[in-house]
Every structure is written in structure tokens, then in C-alpha cells.
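Duplicate of earlier report; Glyoxylate/hydroxypyruvate reductase A input re-posted below.
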Amino acid sequence: MPEPSRYETLSIEQKGVLIAILVVLVFLVWEVALFINNDHLKNAARGDSPIHTRFLAVGDWGRDGKHNQSLVASAMALKAATFQPDFIVSTGDNFYQSGLVWPEDPQFNTSFIDIYSQPGLQLPWYAVLGNHDYGELKDDAKPDDQPPVCSSLDSESCYYSPLHQLSQRLVARDWRWRCERAFQLPLAPGALELFFIDTNPMMSYYRDTPWAGHKGKTGGGILDQSLEAQLVELEAALFRSSARWKIVIGHHPIYSNQRDVGYYKDTKRIIEPLLEKYGVQAYIHGHDHSLYHIVPANSSYHQYCSGAGSKLSQGFLRDGDAPFQRSLNASRNAAEWATQIRAEGVELQVYPDEISDLAAVRYAVVLNQPEGILAQAWLACPNLEAVSGLGHGVEYIAQEADSLPDHVQLFRIVDTKMAERMANWCLWAILNCQRKCDAYYRAQLERRWEHGRIEEYESVDNADFHVGIMGLGVLGGALAEALLRNGYPVSAWTRSRRTEPRFPCHAGRGELPAFLSCVNVLVCLMPITAETEGMLNADLLRLLPRGAYLINAGRGAIQVEADLVTALDEGQLAGVVLDVFEREPLEEESPLWTHPGVRVFPHVSSFTPRDAGVKQVLENWALVKAGKEVPPERHMQRQRGY
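Output:
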């Protein structure tokens, strides 16, 4: 079954030790097994014969390595090292902006041969055509306005056309390439067959575009195609097939999470009846520059989008590449960490491209890697001894801890200065709430002099402003110390009992009401675990005194942002200060950006300086190699998830 795989890696070698730094990117991985656990598909497949076919699916990719195409290719190669696919499927839009313009077009090298050069990707590539492969021009310009460029060729030999991708001259340039308008790929007699189709002629709105026929100059354009003939061919192939598994691959969606309902009415009208009639189990496509999985209601098939081979769509990403900005930031951060590590005399290598011996990897340093990567790392690197995170938060390690053998040690960065920075930021946020600074700031923007009106001469002494802290680890403890020094009444809540003689310390869900009932401001510094996920919800907020404040600098998944907005609108909360969010970066359309009761910070309350982090990462490994104990506070507690 498909799983989204999102990563890109760098590695470090120090005296024969390889260290991997993991970050995030996207493509789609398919493993077809007739004895899979998905009951819907298993029943549809009508059989339990133990045959396997594995392949990668990627679409909308050919951009000369730009817009993350090279990074996705590296991620594909890394996955291929352990997944061992049989072939690769391309769902179309293979060469941007307007396809190839002659069979010797150098873009075939710069967007295909040179980009997918890793050993694990030297497999057959089965491709369908996308709209850009037909010569779609920017802004639907006319061909004469954007003439193709083909070295010294004359204009009669240089033209926009999908026919160039169908040419056998491309196969001579790279044996892997196979692209046809429509073809079938039987993989196991009576068991599995793939059907590749050209969906472009089905899209009625293409027929009125200036590039649809390119004035008939090229031949092979959309206006030259017979939709009826292609449908007859597809239905005949489906009718003839005796395969229990049938998978159809085209370029355009039938349903989409990127477009309004009905946008792809043509494919729904034309393709879906054939999928239903002939018991097709899956339809794989691209066009939307994203990944998603849709199960249409009352249908017999699943629809999978794999169109994230390079530039991701704004419908998927908001503000260009915004939701994946965290991934891009991680890539930049990885490079910066690598530079710092090199400064310590460590030789760095790029992984997987420059490392051939995975068995040499003994120490992994991870940075925001996605789900499943540590499990894959262990399978690919059987001599792995230790994993270290590059920050205080280690939920991205904790979520995979069970996949690693017990002897693999898991570390996190422990930085006393980080705790001090966090305490200072929280003190600022508490004072902002205590003195109603946001109201004064709004008055400033409106040029209103609000002397004595906002606070109405109420007591704002520290001794009258009770602070409740959720989470009393290193960060929470540092904040409690700072608050006590400044004369604030403090109480705390933790999941397990803690002894603290200087202030009340509650524990467990049963003591939440007593803890929350008397606080003026609640500060969350908890780690994310299965128990704390979604904990800051409507039920908990109702336990606070009306008009209380909330500050969250822990983890965004702990809060339910819709409930925060409701609590603010209803007056249960007077204001919130947030440094973390359910999804980061915060989505452009989130109401938190503009709500008058919210202060938004981009996850900056504290951080680990690279020099201190690198020193600790390398020190941990030196201790492991020497057989000495790494300080216990640096160990991640697998049972507790942090």
C-alpha cells in the first residue's frame, strides 16, 4: 500500500562513523500485495495470492532540478535503497514549461538523466503525458509569442509537441524511458495489470486554449486526438484483462482536494464509469502538485495523487511553498549545522549520493524527520548504535522509538541557556497579559490616549497575578524559579506526581480542576505525547476562571486552535500568546493571524545555539564509543515519549 515518504538526508563521517541529518520532502511509494490488510481493497482484489509488485510514483517534476526536484530525487533514491522498487511511474507533466521541443532537447538531460542518476533509480520509467508535455505555454500565450528555442535547428524542426516524448530517440539517449499515449503493463498473469492513459484530450477546457493545436503546425496536439478512439481502446483493454488487480494511471484527477467540486467533471464523466464497470482498484494521477488519497463514496476504487515531484501547488501549500517551508528551513538548517560540524574537524558527506556503505552508519543525528524514517534507517543501517536529536523537543524521535531496537540509544540536547531563554520569553508574555499591553498597542495604532482606562487602576501587582505552569521539566522548572524570584504566586501541573515544597504541584487528570480554577495565566511547556495531544481544548479551557490568559510555548499539537478562537470570542479567554501551532508555518487563512486577542510568534521563544548543540552531539558519540555513560538527562525516555 502507498505511504507518503518525505525526507532528504545529509551525512557526516568522522573516523569511519556516519551521522545522518534528516529533513522532509515528498513522493509516493506503492507496494501492491494481494494479501494486504485493507479490507476494502482486499475484497475488491478477489484473491489472496502472495505476489508483490513495488513501484515509486512521481509526477509534475521536470524543472532542471529546481523547485526541490533534486531533493525529491535524492529522497526517492534513499527510499529505493530499502524499498527496492521494480519500476517507476511518472504521472505526467514530465518537462516544464512546455514539454520537449525536439528529440535531442537538452532538457531531457537536465530534467531527467542528470537528476535521477542515483543507482536505485536506474529502473524502467513508465510515463504518461501531462498538459505541459503538450506544449502548454505560460499564461496561455500564443505559440508565436513564445517560440521554442532549439540550438541551431530551423523552425520546421523545432516545435512544441508531445510527439517528442514518444520518440524512440529518447530511448536511445536513456534506456529507462518509455512514454506512450496509452499502453498496458501486465505484471503477473491473472494477478496485476497497469493501464496507462492520456487524459488530456478528455479535458474540454483545453480545446479552446491557444496551445491546444499550435495552429496544426506540430501534429499530435490535443485537437489532433480522437477521444472516442482512446476510450474504445481503454475499455477493450479492461474488458480483455483477467487480472484480479487493475490499476489505471493518468494525469488528471477525478476528485481533488485542490479544486472545487466539479472542476474535473470531464474525467469524472468519462473515466469513473469505466473504473466502476471493470472493477478497477486504484487510479493514480498527478496534475495537482501535492499528495493525497481519496476514497469516493460508494465506489470500488481508491484515487491517489502523486504530483509533488518538484514545485508544490499553492492550493496544497499556501503562499507558494509555505506549509513546506518548515522542510525548506530544515534543509537550510541542516546545511548550517553541517558547516558548524565541519568547523569541528569532522568530514561531511551528502547522503545518499556520496555514501555507498550503509552498514558504516553507526550514529544518526536527526532534525524534524517524518514518520517512518527511523524505522527505515534501522533497516538500511543495521549497525546503528545511537540517535541524537538537534533540539530539546524530541517528539519526532519519540514517535519512532518503538521501531528501533532497545540497544540503540536515543539522545536529546539539554541546554541550560535554552531554559533561561525560554523563561525570559515567558516572563515577557506574562507581563504582556498582566499589564494588558496588547490593548495599549491597539490604542497606539488608532492614536488613542487611554490613560487609566484600559487597566482602570486595578491592582496589577505580581503578588496578585497567579501563574499556572503545565509541565515542570527543565523548561518549566526554569520558569518557576524566575517567577518565584519576581514574587509571583506559582502552581504547577504534571502528568506524574512531583514533590515541590515551595508551591502547589498537582498531578494527573483528576487534579486539573483544582489546578486551573485559580490561575490568571496558564503557561503550557509540556512535550507532545499521546496523552497531551489536543489537551488544550474547550473542556479544559472551561475550567479556567473567566477572563484568564493562555501562553503556549510547548508544542502546537497540544492545542485545539478552533477551541481557542471560540473561547476568545465568548470571553472565556481574555487573550492568548502562541509560539507554536498545530501546523507550522501557520496557514495564511488561519483566524489567529488577525484575531485581536492573539499574539503570534513563529516558534522563536527559545533555541539551541549550533555551537553548543554540535559540541553536545559529538560529545555524546565520544562517550558511546568509549563505552561511557551519557548524562542521564540527555537520554530520551522511551516509555514517557520525551
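The chain has three domains: 27-146+169-213+223-311, 334-414+609-634, 416-600.

Merging into the original ticket.
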